[in-house]
Design goal:
seven-stranded parallel β-sheet, binds 6-phosphogluconic acid, alpha/beta, three-stranded antiparallel β-sheet
Protein backbone atom coordinates (compact mmCIF):
# COMPACT_ATOMS: atom_id res chain seq x y z
CA UNK A 1 0.00 0.00 0.00
CA UNK A 2 1.35 3.37 -0.99
CA UNK A 3 0.22 6.59 0.69
CA UNK A 4 1.11 9.77 -1.22
CA UNK A 5 0.48 13.12 0.43
CA UNK A 6 0.03 16.30 -1.62
CA UNK A 7 0.01 19.92 -0.47
CA UNK A 8 -3.40 20.60 -2.01
CA UNK A 9 -6.21 19.02 -4.06
CA UNK A 10 -4.82 20.52 -7.29
CA UNK A 11 -1.50 18.70 -6.74
CA UNK A 12 -3.34 15.45 -6.01
CA UNK A 13 -5.43 15.89 -9.16
CA UNK A 14 -2.34 16.40 -11.32
CA UNK A 15 -0.80 13.22 -9.98
CA UNK A 16 -4.06 11.32 -10.52
CA UNK A 17 -4.30 12.59 -14.09
CA UNK A 18 -0.71 11.56 -14.82
CA UNK A 19 -1.40 8.18 -13.23
CA UNK A 20 -4.47 7.74 -15.46
CA UNK A 21 -2.29 8.35 -18.54
CA UNK A 22 0.31 5.86 -17.31
CA UNK A 23 -2.22 3.13 -16.50
CA UNK A 24 -3.96 3.65 -19.83
CA UNK A 25 -0.74 3.37 -21.81
CA UNK A 26 0.44 0.22 -20.04
CA UNK A 27 -2.96 -1.48 -20.29
CA UNK A 28 -3.34 -0.69 -23.99
CA UNK A 29 0.23 -1.80 -24.70
CA UNK A 30 -0.32 -5.06 -22.85
CA UNK A 31 -3.93 -5.91 -23.72
CA UNK A 32 -5.09 -3.52 -26.41
CA UNK A 33 -7.56 -1.70 -24.19
CA UNK A 34 -7.87 0.17 -20.87
CA UNK A 35 -10.76 -0.46 -18.47
CA UNK A 36 -11.27 2.13 -15.73
CA UNK A 37 -14.05 2.49 -13.16
CA UNK A 38 -14.67 6.03 -11.98
CA UNK A 39 -15.75 7.14 -8.54
CA UNK A 40 -18.52 9.54 -7.68
CA UNK A 41 -18.86 12.24 -5.07
CA UNK A 42 -17.23 15.65 -5.34
CA UNK A 43 -13.50 14.92 -5.06
CA UNK A 44 -13.09 13.40 -8.53
CA UNK A 45 -14.40 16.54 -10.27
CA UNK A 46 -10.96 18.19 -10.26
CA UNK A 47 -9.29 14.96 -11.38
CA UNK A 48 -11.70 14.53 -14.32
CA UNK A 49 -11.23 18.14 -15.40
CA UNK A 50 -7.46 17.65 -15.45
CA UNK A 51 -7.61 14.36 -17.34
CA UNK A 52 -9.75 16.18 -19.92
CA UNK A 53 -7.13 18.92 -20.13
CA UNK A 54 -5.08 18.85 -23.32
CA UNK A 55 -1.87 18.29 -21.33
CA UNK A 56 -3.09 14.84 -20.30
CA UNK A 57 -5.92 13.99 -22.72
CA UNK A 58 -3.67 14.04 -25.80
CA UNK A 59 -1.61 11.22 -24.25
CA UNK A 60 -4.52 8.81 -23.91
CA UNK A 61 -5.79 6.51 -26.67
CA UNK A 62 -9.48 7.20 -26.00
CA UNK A 63 -10.74 4.80 -28.65
CA UNK A 64 -9.19 1.95 -26.61
CA UNK A 65 -10.33 3.36 -23.25
CA UNK A 66 -13.51 2.04 -21.65
CA UNK A 67 -15.18 4.03 -18.90
CA UNK A 68 -17.17 2.31 -16.15
CA UNK A 69 -18.42 3.38 -12.72
CA UNK A 70 -17.77 1.78 -9.34
CA UNK A 71 -21.14 2.91 -8.08
CA UNK A 72 -24.16 5.01 -8.98
CA UNK A 73 -27.06 6.62 -7.34
CA UNK A 74 -30.55 5.39 -8.33
CA UNK A 75 -31.38 8.51 -10.28
CA UNK A 76 -31.63 9.37 -14.00
CA UNK A 77 -28.40 10.22 -15.84
CA UNK A 78 -29.19 13.92 -15.95
CA UNK A 79 -29.93 14.15 -12.21
CA UNK A 80 -27.70 16.44 -10.12
CA UNK A 81 -26.72 13.46 -7.92
CA UNK A 82 -25.72 11.23 -10.84
CA UNK A 83 -22.08 10.10 -10.82
CA UNK A 84 -22.40 9.61 -14.55
CA UNK A 85 -23.52 13.21 -15.02
CA UNK A 86 -20.46 14.43 -13.10
CA UNK A 87 -18.15 12.51 -15.44
CA UNK A 88 -20.10 13.46 -18.56
CA UNK A 89 -19.88 17.18 -17.77
CA UNK A 90 -16.20 17.19 -16.79
CA UNK A 91 -14.63 14.43 -18.88
CA UNK A 92 -16.77 12.54 -21.37
CA UNK A 93 -18.47 15.41 -23.20
CA UNK A 94 -15.41 17.69 -23.34
CA UNK A 95 -13.43 14.85 -24.96
CA UNK A 96 -16.28 13.56 -27.11
CA UNK A 97 -15.80 9.99 -25.83
CA UNK A 98 -17.69 7.51 -28.04
CA UNK A 99 -20.88 6.08 -26.54
CA UNK A 100 -19.51 2.58 -27.24
CA UNK A 101 -16.70 3.33 -24.77
CA UNK A 102 -19.03 4.56 -22.02
CA UNK A 103 -20.55 1.87 -19.81
CA UNK A 104 -23.10 3.64 -17.64
CA UNK A 105 -24.89 2.14 -14.64
CA UNK A 106 -28.57 2.68 -15.44
CA UNK A 107 -29.63 4.43 -12.25
CA UNK A 108 -33.02 5.22 -13.75
CA UNK A 109 -34.01 1.52 -13.71
CA UNK A 110 -35.27 -0.47 -10.73
CA UNK A 111 -32.08 -1.07 -8.67
CA UNK A 112 -32.00 -4.86 -8.90
CA UNK A 113 -32.53 -4.69 -12.67
CA UNK A 114 -29.82 -2.06 -13.05
CA UNK A 115 -27.38 -4.20 -11.06
CA UNK A 116 -28.19 -7.33 -13.08
CA UNK A 117 -27.80 -5.47 -16.36
CA UNK A 118 -24.45 -4.05 -15.27
CA UNK A 119 -23.24 -7.47 -14.19
CA UNK A 120 -24.18 -8.74 -17.66
CA UNK A 121 -22.35 -5.79 -19.21
CA UNK A 122 -19.21 -6.71 -17.28
CA UNK A 123 -19.48 -10.30 -18.48
CA UNK A 124 -19.94 -9.11 -22.05
CA UNK A 125 -16.88 -6.88 -21.78
CA UNK A 126 -14.55 -9.25 -19.91
CA UNK A 127 -15.83 -12.44 -21.53
CA UNK A 128 -15.23 -15.67 -19.65
CA UNK A 129 -12.35 -14.19 -17.68
CA UNK A 130 -13.23 -12.85 -14.21
CA UNK A 131 -13.73 -9.07 -14.50
CA UNK A 132 -10.42 -7.38 -13.71
CA UNK A 133 -10.27 -3.62 -14.12
CA UNK A 134 -7.01 -1.95 -14.99
CA UNK A 135 -7.79 0.96 -12.69
CA UNK A 136 -10.51 1.73 -10.15
CA UNK A 137 -10.91 5.18 -8.60
CA UNK A 138 -12.42 5.30 -5.11
CA UNK A 139 -13.33 7.95 -2.57
CA UNK A 140 -13.62 7.69 1.21
CA UNK A 141 -16.73 8.76 3.06
CA UNK A 142 -16.58 10.14 6.61
CA UNK A 143 -18.20 6.92 7.83
CA UNK A 144 -15.51 4.87 6.11
CA UNK A 145 -17.61 3.88 3.11
CA UNK A 146 -16.22 3.59 -0.38
CA UNK A 147 -18.07 3.19 -3.66
CA UNK A 148 -21.52 2.52 -2.19
CA UNK A 149 -20.26 -0.01 0.34
CA UNK A 150 -21.66 1.61 3.46
CA UNK A 151 -21.22 0.37 7.06
CA UNK A 152 -23.82 -2.18 8.09
CA UNK A 153 -25.20 -2.76 4.59
CA UNK A 154 -25.83 -6.09 2.88
CA UNK A 155 -23.34 -5.53 0.07
CA UNK A 156 -20.46 -5.90 2.55
CA UNK A 157 -21.22 -9.61 2.94
CA UNK A 158 -21.39 -10.25 -0.80
CA UNK A 159 -18.70 -12.70 -1.88
CA UNK A 160 -19.95 -13.84 -5.30
CA UNK A 161 -21.82 -11.08 -7.15
CA UNK A 162 -19.75 -8.35 -8.79
CA UNK A 163 -22.41 -5.64 -8.84
CA UNK A 164 -25.36 -5.33 -6.44
CA UNK A 165 -28.21 -3.04 -5.49
CA UNK A 166 -27.41 -2.00 -1.95
CA UNK A 167 -30.00 -0.52 0.38
CA UNK A 168 -28.47 2.23 2.50
CA UNK A 169 -30.83 3.02 5.41
CA UNK A 170 -28.75 6.01 6.52
CA UNK A 171 -29.35 7.63 3.14
CA UNK A 172 -32.89 6.25 2.82
CA UNK A 173 -31.77 5.24 -0.63
CA UNK A 174 -30.57 2.30 -2.67
CA UNK A 175 -27.30 2.48 -4.60
CA UNK A 176 -25.78 0.32 -7.33
CA UNK A 177 -22.25 -0.67 -6.36
CA UNK A 178 -19.27 -2.83 -7.13
CA UNK A 179 -18.66 -5.36 -4.38
CA UNK A 180 -15.34 -5.63 -2.54
CA UNK A 181 -14.32 -8.82 -4.40
CA UNK A 182 -14.68 -7.06 -7.75
CA UNK A 183 -12.70 -4.03 -6.57
CA UNK A 184 -10.02 -6.27 -5.07
CA UNK A 185 -9.55 -8.05 -8.40
CA UNK A 186 -8.36 -4.82 -10.04
CA UNK A 187 -4.81 -4.32 -11.28
CA UNK A 188 -4.72 -0.91 -9.59
CA UNK A 189 -6.96 0.85 -7.06
CA UNK A 190 -6.53 4.55 -6.23
CA UNK A 191 -8.29 6.33 -3.37
CA UNK A 192 -8.62 10.11 -3.55
CA UNK A 193 -9.02 11.69 -0.10
CA UNK A 194 -9.10 15.44 0.51
CA UNK A 195 -10.13 17.76 3.32
CA UNK A 196 -9.58 17.91 7.07
CA UNK A 197 -13.00 16.33 7.64
CA UNK A 198 -11.54 13.03 6.40
CA UNK A 199 -8.44 13.08 8.65
CA UNK A 200 -10.03 11.08 11.47
CA UNK A 201 -11.63 8.38 9.36
CA UNK A 202 -8.50 8.05 7.22
CA UNK A 203 -6.44 7.38 10.32
CA UNK A 204 -8.98 4.84 11.55
CA UNK A 205 -9.12 3.07 8.19
CA UNK A 206 -5.35 2.92 7.73
CA UNK A 207 -3.97 2.48 11.24
CA UNK A 208 -6.89 2.36 13.65
CA UNK A 209 -7.15 -0.72 15.83
CA UNK A 210 -10.75 -0.38 16.80
CA UNK A 211 -13.08 -2.93 15.33
CA UNK A 212 -15.43 -0.40 13.79
CA UNK A 213 -16.61 -1.81 10.47
CA UNK A 214 -15.08 0.65 8.01
CA UNK A 215 -15.87 -0.79 4.55
CA UNK A 216 -12.80 0.90 3.03
CA UNK A 217 -10.69 -1.52 5.10
CA UNK A 218 -12.07 -4.31 2.88
CA UNK A 219 -10.20 -2.89 -0.10
CA UNK A 220 -7.07 -5.00 -0.40
CA UNK A 221 -6.33 -5.81 -4.07
CA UNK A 222 -5.32 -9.47 -4.25
CA UNK A 223 -2.99 -9.04 -7.22
CA UNK A 224 -2.99 -5.32 -7.75
CA UNK A 225 -1.68 -2.09 -6.32
CA UNK A 226 -3.44 0.06 -3.72
CA UNK A 227 -2.53 3.73 -3.67
CA UNK A 228 -3.93 6.41 -1.38
CA UNK A 229 -3.67 9.91 -2.86
CA UNK A 230 -4.26 12.23 0.08
CA UNK A 231 -4.02 15.95 0.68
CA UNK A 232 -1.98 17.18 3.67
CA UNK A 233 -5.06 18.25 5.62
CA UNK A 234 -6.64 14.80 5.25
CA UNK A 235 -3.32 13.16 6.22
CA UNK A 236 -2.88 15.31 9.34
CA UNK A 237 -3.56 12.43 11.76
CA UNK A 238 -1.45 9.78 10.02
CA UNK A 239 1.86 8.62 11.50
CA UNK A 240 4.62 10.32 9.51
CA UNK A 241 6.44 7.03 8.92
CA UNK A 242 3.45 5.83 6.88
CA UNK A 243 3.48 8.49 4.24
CA UNK A 244 5.48 9.63 1.24
CA UNK A 245 5.36 13.34 0.54
CA UNK A 246 4.91 14.02 -3.13
C1 LIG B 1 -20.46 8.33 -4.29
C2 LIG B 1 -19.05 7.85 -4.19
C3 LIG B 1 -18.66 7.78 -2.75
C4 LIG B 1 -17.65 8.89 -2.57
C5 LIG B 1 -17.41 9.17 -1.10
C6 LIG B 1 -16.46 10.36 -0.94
O1 LIG B 1 -21.22 7.85 -5.15
O2 LIG B 1 -20.77 9.26 -3.52
O3 LIG B 1 -18.78 6.76 -4.88
O4 LIG B 1 -18.09 6.56 -2.35
O5 LIG B 1 -16.44 8.52 -3.20
O6 LIG B 1 -18.66 9.47 -0.51
O7 LIG B 1 -17.09 11.46 -1.56
P1 LIG B 1 -16.29 12.86 -1.66
O8 LIG B 1 -15.08 12.57 -2.49
O9 LIG B 1 -17.27 13.76 -2.33
O10 LIG B 1 -15.95 13.25 -0.26
Amino acid sequence: MDIRVFPAAADLARHAAASFVTHAASAIDARGRFSVALSGGSTPRLVFRLIANEEFARRVNWSATHIFWGDERCVPPDHADSNYRLARETLLAPLGIAESNIHRMEGELPPAEAAARYDARLRAFFGNAPPRFDLIHLGLGEDGHTASLFPGTAALAETEAKVVANEVPRLQATRITFTAPLINAARAVEFFVTGSAKAGVLREVLVGNNQAPYPSRMIRPTQGTLTWLVTADAAAQLPTELIRHA
